[in-house]
Structures are given as structure tokens and as C-alpha cells.
Amino acid sequence: MSAIDEVITALQAVADELNDATNAASHAATKADDALTQAVALGATATVAGLSAVKESIDKLHQQVQGTIDIANDTATQARAVADGT
């Protein structure tokens, strides 16, 4: 395996790990939504406010990770172009 092939493989591993992080963030968002619904039903105003802030942070995290996935994929594409000599 050439050095550039190793770079491509490593970048794909990065993208795979980031996809796992996106899935975990989505799961956390679902759980936060469930907790928020329960807090609303119980009339727990302070908890609702806190969970809303947590949910917003999870959404930001998800967006950041997705942006990083895009960068990793773009970088892998660049590395493939180098490997192909284009």
C-alpha cells in the first residue's frame, strides 16, 4: 500500500468515526426531546428551560460534526485525486 493510499484509508476511518459521532448526537437529541416532552407535561419550567438549552447545544454539536464530515470527505477526495495523478 502506498503512502497516499494509507492517507486515504486513514481519512475514511476519520469519516467513519465522525459518522458514529453524528449518530450518537442524533440519539442524544432524541433522548433530550423525550425528556423535554416529559418535563413540559409535568410543568417543570426550570427543567424545560435547561433541557431546551441542552437540545440547542446538541443541535450545534450535530452541525459541527456534519461540517467536519464534509471536510474529511473533501480531503479524502483531494487525496484520491493525488493518488490518481489528476
Report on the biggest sheet: none
Beta-strand percent range: under 5%
Q: State the secondary-structure class.
A: mainly alpha
Silhouette: rod-shaped
Quaternary state, please? single chain
Number of helices: 2
| Percentage of residues assigned to helices | over 70%
Could you give the count of β-strands?
A: 0
Task: Give the radius of gyration.
Answer: 19 Å
Please tell me the overall pLDDT. Answer: 94
Description of the structure:
- The chain is mainly α and 86 residues long.
- It is 93% helix and 0% strand.
- It has two helices and no strands.
- It has helices at residues 3-42, 45-84.
- α1 runs antiparallel to α2 (45-84).
- It is rod-shaped and about 60 Å long.
- 6% of the residues are buried.
A few lines on this structure:
With 86 residues, this protein is mainly alpha-helical. It is built from 2 helices and no strands.
Keywords:
2 helices
Spell out the blueprint of helices and strands:
Layout: H1 3-42, H2 45-84
Helix pairs in contact: 1-2
